[in-house]
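Researcher: We plan to redesign the surface later, but first we want a full-length starting point. Tokens attached.
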């Protein structure tokens, strides 16, 4: 049983953990000042809906004539699988701590947190409207203005400002220690992302038409070594606080505004992990388009928009990261005392170029690994899952797997985004059936 704990507003949760329901939510949160301030005290006017469609948690929308908000509550098990897979509630604690850090490091990028109750694993936060999950927009062939720039900036600001390049030793060590506690979610990533796809793991599933390709990938020694080297980087290279699950289901957009949600997998790891996972999900959407846009011309236009978005994310990341390097590098690594303070601006620029090259290689590798796991492991993507024609789905997923293998194993030798996009287009043009 969980014990009572002080929540963020200093009031006390005097009951042991209990999942909320649409019927109990108003009674349970009707006394919480931060909630009442936004919805009003008359809970009879609150309209509660359960809207969670993610893999892990309960998510409610609550509206009243006065306002609206989101209530997210962790369940003690993996929602996608059921209570046979227990999962600790403390992931809400890590999500809360990640959200407040992201809000500080990139203001306006994440929903505002109104209230956190650790014992109940509840986060009450801003209701983003009329935002929808980016993955759904991609399936509908919708464009989002400024998407690439915003996502690149989010990556640069959160990854730079959570790292040794920005933080002092005491803060950096305290944060790394705090997020080290997110053990069970790290364990999910370490297994589902880096290991399960490469053997016949229990929860794996894939489209039957991929059988021959899957067999080849599981016998591919270079690929398995690449996956394990990247797993070592994820587990050992505590470069910064990552979002940890930065796919297109963790992003909400209007036609022109972008926000990032759901950082419960927050983890101190390599910068390229977030960027790689992000662009992997765009590449998979690119290959899934034959299942979503029938008109060849419209499809090709939209696919080019997706590729331009991928290129734009990296470009925006590089630009903003470089700006932060030149203006905010006050942490424990690459101190100005060794470079600019000695008049060695060139040295600082060389070091920056080397850091960016390192992040680029990791980004490509993690992008490949993410595409493979979203096709062969437990958690797939809606863009592919909703393609009913199995042969077509296998063709789309197969193209993604081909690009993925090249990115993961060839990450040291792919010079720039132009080469990656050319490869992506070449694979898309071929009929692999
Ligand atoms: C059991 S959780 C499966 C996946 O869902 C989350 O969104 C993460 O991506 C995780 O790997
Ligand atoms: Mg999530």
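Model: Full-length starting sequence:
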């Amino acid at each position: 049983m969980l014990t009572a704990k002080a929540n963020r507003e200093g009031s006390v949760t005097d009951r042991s953990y209990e999942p909320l329901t649409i019927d109990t939510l108003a009674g349970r949160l009707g006394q919480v000042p931060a909630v009442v301030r936004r919805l009003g005290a008359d809970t009879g006017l609150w309209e509660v809906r359960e809207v969670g469609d993610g893999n892990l948690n309960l998510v409610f929308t609550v509206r009243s004539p006065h306002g609206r908000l989101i209530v997210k509550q962790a369940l003690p098990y993996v929602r996608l699988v059921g209570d046979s897979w227990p999962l600790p509630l403390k992931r809400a604690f890590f999500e809360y701590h990640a959200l407040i850090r992201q809000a500080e490091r990139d203001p306006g990028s994440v929903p505002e947190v109104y209230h956190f109750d650790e014992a109940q694993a509840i986060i009450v936060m801003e209701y983003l409207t009329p935002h929808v999950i980016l993955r759904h927009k991609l399936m509908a062939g919708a464009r989002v203005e400024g998407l690439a720039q915003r996502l690149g900036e989010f990556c640069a600001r959160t990854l730079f400002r959570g790292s040794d390049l920005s933080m002092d030793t005491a803060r950096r060590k305290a944060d790394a220690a705090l997020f080290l506690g997110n053990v069970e979610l790290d364990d999910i990533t370490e297994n589902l992302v880096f290991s399960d796809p490469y053997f016949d793991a229990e929860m794996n599933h894939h489209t039957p038409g991929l059988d021959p390709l899957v067999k080849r990938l599981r016998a591919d020694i270079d690929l398995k070594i690449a996956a394990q080297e990247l797993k070592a980087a994820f587990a050992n290279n505590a470069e910064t606080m990552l979002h940890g699950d930065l796919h297109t289901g963790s992003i909400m957009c209007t036609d022109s505004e972008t926000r990032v949600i759901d950082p419960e997998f927050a983890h101190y790891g390599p910068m390229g992990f977030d960027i790689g996972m992000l662009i992997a999900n765009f590449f998979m959407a690119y290959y899934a388009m034959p299942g979503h846009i029938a008109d060849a011309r419209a499809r090709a236009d939209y696919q080019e928009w997706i590729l331009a978005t991928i290129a734009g994310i990296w470009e925006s990341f590089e630009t903003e990261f470089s700006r932060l390097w030149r203006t905010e590098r006050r942490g424990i690594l690459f101190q100005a005392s060794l470079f600019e303070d000695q008049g060695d601006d060139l040295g600082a620029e060389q070091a920056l170029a080397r850091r960016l090259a390192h992040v680029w290689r990791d980004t490509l590798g993690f992008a490949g690994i993410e595409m493979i796991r979203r096709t062969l492991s437990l958690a797939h993507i809606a863009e592919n899952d909703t393609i009913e024609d199995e042969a077509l789905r296998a063709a789309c997923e197969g193209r993604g797997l081909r690009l993925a293998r090249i990115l993961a194993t060839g990450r040291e030798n792919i010079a720039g985004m132009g080469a990656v996009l050319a490869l992506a287009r070449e694979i898309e043009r071929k009929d692999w059936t």
